[in-house]
Amino acid sequence: MISNLSIHGPRRLFPLLALVGACFLPDPGRAADGWVPLFNGKDLTGWEQHSGKALYRVEDGCVVGKTVINTENSFLCTKKTYGNFILEFEFKVAPDMNSGVQFRSEFYTKATETVVNGKKKRTFPADRVFGYQYEIDPSPRAYTGGVYDEARRGWLADLKDNAAAQKAFKPGQWNQARIQCQGDHIQTWINGVKAADLKDSMTLRGLIALQVHQIGDGTKKPPGEEIRWRNIRIKEL
Predict the structure, then answer these.
(1) What is the DSSP secondary-structure string of 27-69?
(2) Largest alpha-carbon pair distance within the chain?
(3) How many H helices and E strands in the chain?
(4) pTM for this one?
(5) pLDDT of amino acid 120
């Protein structure tokens, strides 16, 4: 005699086995080594703009940020937050433009007063992005790769004592950037040269954002300067 379990059991198990198997399939957006693209090269899916009104578009597989007059600093932000990670990207920036890439950054949905660093009270306007920034600075100061705390504490790691990193930036060319955050340990590189290495635990998780710096009314810098980013990818640790 054949039991009902023998006849019907496998049929009942097939959907369950398929569900279990699906749980172990790789994420189609995640490479075998853990890298995930943050930009698909086609549109700005997964990103949203905050703070300012600079223009962002997609062109030739790049995110392009363009300066405009009479606006604050602008940020194209990931919708997802990240804590411990390695972030890599390439960028090419106009020679007279200031920019950066935010990481572990935040914004408030309404004006908020808070104490910064346990000492100073600060009121953040609604939608104002703040937090760690990988500096992009093509000026003679050459601080590209330094870490600036946007809208909070200012410079955390400039490059005035790091001549190798200052020389690593390539004006008018594509540059490779790397940011690594693990707990309170923050490290940055520019074209393979170590730029910053610091310990700071003020914010351990937050957004990634592409900054276009404000230019005021355009009398000092004309509008229309551009920065391009491509091959933006992240590996969570």
Answers:
(1) PTTS-TTS-EES--SSS-TTEEEESS--EEEEETTEEEEE--S
(2) 93
(3) 2, 17
(4) 0.86
(5) 76
Residues belonging to the chain: 237
User: What sign does the CA torsion over 123, 129, 131, 132 have?
Assistant: negative
- DSSP letter at 82 equals B
- What does the alpha-carbon distance between residue 192 and residue 207 come to, in Å, rounded to a whole number? 24
What phi and psi values does residue 158 have, to the nearest 5 degrees?
A: -85, -175
Model confidence pLDDT, tens digit, residues 91-118: 999 999 999 999 999 999 999 998 887 7
- Judged by average pLDDT, the poorest of 26-30, 36-40, 176-180, 231-235 is 26-30
Residue 28 banded pLDDT, cuts 50, 70, 90: low
* φ, ψ (nearest 5 deg) of residue 163: -65, -35
